[in-house]
Design goal:
The complex is a heterodimer.
Chain A: H1 3-36, H2 44-56, H3 58-80, H4 83-90, H5 92-103, H6 111-129
Helix pairs in contact in A: 1-2, 1-3, 1-5, 4-6, 5-6
Chain B: H1 12-23, H2 26-46, H3 51-57, H4 61-72, H5 79-97
The chains are: A mainly alpha, B mainly alpha.
Chain lengths: 141, 100
């Protein structure tokens, strides 16, 4: 098995996991916050019941766990993969979060919003493809 | 992070020393404080706005990062990167228009 093929075998599943785990974490945070109540009041006293609802909601801990998992997977990836390889892949996470918020949260995604998300995804991809200015040796690919 | 220097080995001991070293830098505390503020702001907005609106709009952090890197870290940002950031901002604007 060539070196590249072996690398791809461990890199691509991790990238797929990170594209799902990060957005999933955010979706769970959203679900937790919606169930806790709207934080639009400016009075400090109103925050107490909401804060207790947040801390006892299982979704918030699920969300934090997913985000932590995403962080770990992402850091792991970056120990061997080039940032310029990983970064464009994460552009897909914007599409992923939109799909997850439709399927899990039941949010209505208008065609205009899909267009905006696609444009963001494209922009993030372009940013990722510009090489980070490195002065040191190139990483072992 | 650039002040501490590149991390070469990932043993638990050296990771711990890297973390402890970073905590001695005042910029680190400012960074942690601002990221915490960002996280709580995210939670607050999520309590009354849709996730599919909030997270795409948070892509503006790419623009903020580029301006910040130029202003605070003296990094030079390539023209292609600015073009990519402009595309991201356009996308954010479109998503913003789609809100109800």
């Amino acid at each position: 098995m060539t070196h590249t093929r072996r690398l791809r075998l461990k890199t691509i599943p991790l990238i797929v996991i990170s594209i799902i785990l990060g957005p999933l974490g955010n979706v769970f945070l959203g679900k937790a916050m919606k169930s806790a109540g709207s934080l639009t009041s400016g009075r400090i006293l109103d925050l107490v019941p909401i804060a207790s609802r947040i801390l006892t909601s299982s979704y918030i801990w699920l969300g934090v766990a997913c985000l932590l998992g995403f962080f770990i997977v992402h850091m792991l990836l970056l120990t061997w993969a080039d940032y310029s390889y990983v970064q464009p892949a994460t552009s897909l996470s914007y599409v992923s979060i939109t799909m997850l918020s439709y399927f899990i949260l039941g949010e209505v995604i208008s065609p205009l919003r899909w267009l905006g998300v696609s444009v963001i995804c494209l922009g993030v991809f372009v940013v990722g493809r510009t090489s980070p200015s490195t002065t040191g040796q190139p990483k072992r690919a | 992070m650039k002040g501490i220097g590149e991390v070469h080995d990932f043993s638990p001991k050296s990771i711990l020393s890297f973390v402890l070293q970073s905590l001695r830098l005042p910029w680190m505390w400012l960074g942690i404080a601002l990221m915490s503020l960002g996280f709580f702001s995210l939670l607050t907005i999520l309590s009354f706005q849709e996730v599919s609106l909030v997270v795409p709009v948070s892509a503006l952090s790419y623009a903020a990062g580029a301006f910040g890197a130029k202003a605070f870290l003296g990094e030079s940002v390539s023209r292609n990167r600015w073009i990519g950031i402009a595309v991201v901002c356009l996308g954010v604007t479109i998503v913003w228009w789609s809100r109800r």
